[in-house]
Amino acid sequence: MLKYVPEMTSVVIEEIPDKLTLAVEISNCQGNCIGCHSPFLKSDIGEELTPERVSALIADNFGVNCFLFLGEGSDRKALLDLASYLRLNHPSLELALYSGRTAVEEDIWEAFDYVKIGPYIESLGPLNSVTTNQRLYHHREDITARFWTRGIDKNKTPD
User: Fold this and answer.
1) Model confidence over 106-156: pLDDT tens digits?
2) Are 27 and 3 in contact (CB under 8 A)?
3) If phi over 0 gives left and psi between -120 and 50 gives alpha, with beta otherwise, what is residue 118?
4) Is 115 exposed, middle or buried (0-12, 13-18, 19+ CB in 10 A)?
5) Which end of the chain is more exposed for a tag (fewer CB within 10 A), N or C?
6) Which residues of 123-140 are buried (b: 16+ CB within 10 A; e: fewer)?
7) pLDDT tens, position by position, 15-68
8) Radius of gyration of the chain from its Cα atoms, rounded to whole angstroms
């Protein structure tokens, strides 16, 4: 079972470039990022994220063109099943996954259009820092540098 935190679900514009994204926070995080902005997501909290709930969230957020799982949770099969459900029932949506792991398996690459890997390391900064260890891929192409050209991180510049 995959759980999400309903009150943290929101439509965002800066997580996935050029996408109006429905971002869903997944609990039971298996990561151990020092400086994590949401350490409570390591707990078994929230509600079950079912196919029916996913469709209701999409219906309630007209205009989104990307569905983002913010975390993998602790049930890999449930995550991949939901991704399959979304592909079949909402084919116009792109799918995104933020994983704090350093690498993901082939089935993750196949299930998602966007995959963010790398644990958050405070001293290296988030995606908008040129020193970040995190990477965002779109169909396996590293697009992380798109975050650096937006002028968001004015304290760090490329070498």
Assistant:
1) 999 999 999 999 998 989 999 999 999 999 999 999 999 999 975 544 444
2) yes
3) left
4) buried
5) C
6) eebebbbeebebebbbee
7) 999 999 999 999 998 887 777 778 888 889 999 999 999 999 999 999 999 999
8) 15
